[in-house]
Design a protein that fits this description.
Strand 10 and strand 11 form a beta hairpin. The longest helix is centred in the N-terminal third of the chain and has 14 residues. This protein has 343 residues and is α/β, with parallel strands linked by helices. The chain contains nine helices and 20 strands. The strands form six sheets. An eight-stranded mixed sheet has the order 4-1-5-7-10-11-14-15, sandwiched between helices.
Length: 343
């Protein structure tokens, strides 16, 4: 068919792209240019598939901001040539990577679907084939001549999620990801069902794609725990060139009310360090000032992370710090949804 959607499959690394050498039992990278030979089912999809791979596959643990930009540039360079993109990465850091990519693209009007697997593509019981096939099907899905998905998503084990809402919750089960504060955008069973009322769409189809490549990664996560010492908090706030702190608090955004603790945070904010309050709970939202134990945080100007995930908060902070905003503008933009990452 002449009007078949064209999909670019981008392999960056990760378990999904590995096959086992049965002589040595070692895993080696799979040649994605031969993907149709290995997975002939792809020929049944109503789309044309082309592939590109990182020269050297990157393991999940080695994924960093340099590779975020590389992924973004591959999409940017091919944006006009393809109708959709499927990005294969290691699942351990997939929520971090896909969240970051969601902030790098403004006015996105095509699907960017991240997927991977818990078992290599060559394993007998692999989850790789289903994840890959359905991700490509989602990326090529259209309605009234337009793509159904026009945002950065993550597909894993029969569910499509908004990428910047996800967290990896299990290292062993095929159902490895969850989106605690936002429902799945689609579910794959006998039929592929899109929850269209949940989807994000660009309001102005004439707007050009903007790719934001300035990320500031001089940030840190400070996770509170009972017994954390003032010395630890003070040392973290004093890290040279530190620009931002993701403060993982208890429950709905609560923290110790000890004067020294609050004074350290207040001093950091005065020095220009941005501090965002996110909950360390798996689900739910920060509600600054709801309890007395978060009132002081609100008073000193800590940013309310609302129901954002830690992974997404890191990505959003890197992005906004890269935009060189003043304190007021940073707080304003962080506390409003930019890519559907918070309610």
């Amino acid at each position: 068919m002449a009007n078949q959607p064209t999909i670019l499959l981008v392999y960056t690394g990760g378990t999904i792209g590995m096959i086992k050498d049965y002589k040595t039992n070692a895993l080696k990278a799979f040649d994605f240019s031969q993907i149709v030979d290995k997975i002939p089912e792809l020929q049944q999809l109503n789309c044309k598939i082309e592939t590109v791979s990182f020269e050297e596959p990157i393991d999940s643990s080695n994924m960093n901001t340099k590779y975020y930009i590389k992924i973004a540039e591959i999409i940017e360079e091919n944006y006009q040539k393809f109708d959709g993109f499927v990005i294969l990465t290691g699942s351990d850091t997939m929520s971090y990577t896909s969240s970051a990519i969601s902030f790098l693209f403004e006015n996105l009007q095509k699907p960017v679907i991240f997927t991977g697997s818990q078992l290599p593509i060559g394993d007998l019981r692999t989850d790789a084939k289903e994840n890959l096939i359905t991700s490509i099907e989602i990326a090529s899905a259209r309605k009234d001549g337009l793509p159904i998905i026009t945002e950065v998503c993550l597909y894993f084990e029969y569910k499509l999620y908004r990428a910047n809402r996800t967290t990896k919750i299990n290292a062993e089960q095929f159902e490895a990801f969850a989106s605690m504060n936002y429902p799945p955008l689609a579910e794959s069973g006998v039929h592929l069902q899109f929850n269209e009322h949940l989807l994000k769409h660009s309001k102005d189809l004439q707007k050009q794609l903007i790719v934001r490549k300035k990320l500031d990664y001089n940030i840190v996560i400070l996770k509170l725990f009972p017994g954390i010492t003032i010395n630890v908090v003070e040392s973290i706030a004093a890290i040279p060139n530190l620009k931002g702190i993701i403060l993982e608090t208890y429950g709905a955004g609560n923290a110790p009310t000890e004067k020294k603790f609050i004074k350290i945070l207040a001093s950091a904010i005065k020095r220009g360090i941005r501090i965002v309050n996110v909950t360390q709970c798996a689900g739910g939202s920060v509600i600054l000032g709801h309890y007395e134990t978060s009132m002081q945080l609100k008073e000193i100007g800590i940013v309310d992370g609302k129901d954002i995930t830690t992974e997404s908060a890191i990505a959003k902070m890197m992005y906004l710090l890269g935009e060189n905003l003043n304190t007021k503008a940073f707080k304003q933009y962080f506390e409003q949804p930019l890519r559907g990452e918070i309610d």
